[in-house]
């Protein structure tokens, strides 16, 4: 059912803006994760940037804090494995 009240229309506008912003953040999280994985142990800056972004997204509620922790854990494990074989 379409929103008709002033407050309903405003909520709809806010949701559209927020959804677009959250999509952009989620996309950048994936990109940073890929960069950190590809760099392996060679670039600690890439890993640090990915972890910082995950923490920030979790703090803002864009992703759940447990999801951020899980991603960080998997990322660190991957980088540690890559560093030991290199």
Explain the layout of strands and helices.
Blueprint: H1 6-39, H2 44-60, H3 65-85
Helix pairs in contact: 1-2, 2-3
As residue ranges, the low-confidence spans are none
- The second-level CATH architecture is Up-down Bundle
Largest sheet: none
**What is the CATH third-level topology name?**
Methane Monooxygenase Hydroxylase, Chain G, domain 1
Please, how many domains? Answer: 1
CATH superfamily: Ribosomal protein S20
Distance between the termini: 58 Å
- Helix-strand sequence: HHH
Which bin fits the share of residues in helices? over 70%
Q: What gross morphology would you assign?
A: elongated
The class by helix and strand makeup works out as mainly alpha
Average of the residue pLDDT scores: 92
What percent of residues are in strands?
under 5%
What's the CATH C level?
Mainly Alpha
Radius of gyration: 17 Å
Count of DSSP strands: 0
Count of helical stretches: 3
Give an overview in words:
By secondary structure, this protein is mostly helical. It has a single domain, classed as Ribosomal protein S20 (Methane Monooxygenase Hydroxylase, Chain G, domain 1, Up-down Bundle), CATH 1.20.58.110. 84% of the residues lie in helices and 0% in strands. It is built from three helices and no strands. The mean pLDDT is 92.
Looking at this protein, list some descriptive labels.
mainly alpha; 86 residues
